[in-house]
Specification:
mainly alpha
Length: 196
């Protein structure tokens, strides 16, 4: 019988908090059972296995990230929207490292299709980049550039990968400004240049 007070939502929230405190890789059914003071079987009444638990954390985190970015860029366009997007992304990644790590795992397509947060996280950068006048395939290339820059920077910063005395925040601001310039001057397809 399920322990009173335990729900899938409560377990997911606790797992997300544990991910931030101890690392996403350390989120297990046993660790959560110890946290709640119950046997593992009590949690299996609410989640099938650790894979489902981690997927639930990923869905929760994607929703939080999308809400933060969406709020940050509301009513903004161009460089202002890019800066707001970038800062919201970086702040979430640094403030919630375990949750952020969860957003990077590969999920089953059916899970993504039902995750409002994942769908918004995919749509938000496309909306931002349409403001720069980009269309396919350039917009997908630009989304990949933004994602790899934001993710790489946040990952390196969180792991202490920037040892130079220059302010990490200043370098971040310069990087985002450089992205703005790149987006305003997006190059033609390499094949198009060869044909010119």
């Amino acid at each position: 019988m399920a322990r009173a007070g335990l729900t899938a939502e409560r377990i997911t929230e606790a797992a997300a908090d544990m991910a931030d405190a101890e690392g996403f890789a350390n989120v297990t059914i046993s660790a959560l059972a110890r946290h709640f003071g119950v046997k593992d079987a009590s949690l299996y009444s609410h989640v099938r296995n650790v894979a489902e638990l981690r997927a639930r954390v990923a869905v929760l985190a994607a929703g939080e990230l999308a809400d933060r970015i969406g709020s940050a860029i509301a009513g903004r366009a161009g460089r202002d929207a890019l800066v707001a997007f970038a800062d919201a992304y970086r702040a979430y990644a640094l403030e919630h490292p375990g949750r952020y790590a969860a957003t990077q795992i590969q999920l089953a397509p059916e899970v993504v299709a039902e995750s409002r947060g994942h769908l918004r996280c995919m749509e938000l950068p496309y909306s931002l980049l349409r403001g720069y006048g980009l269309d396919e395939p350039a917009i997908t290339d630009a989304v990949r550039l933004l994602r790899s820059t934001f993710h790489g920077y946040a990952h390196l910063e969180a792991s202490g990968g920037f040892g130079h005395s220059r302010s990490v925040r200043t370098s971040w601001e310069q990087a985002v400004h450089a992205l703005h310039i790149a987006l305003e001057n997006w190059p033609s397809e390499p094949g198009d240049l060869d044909d010119a």
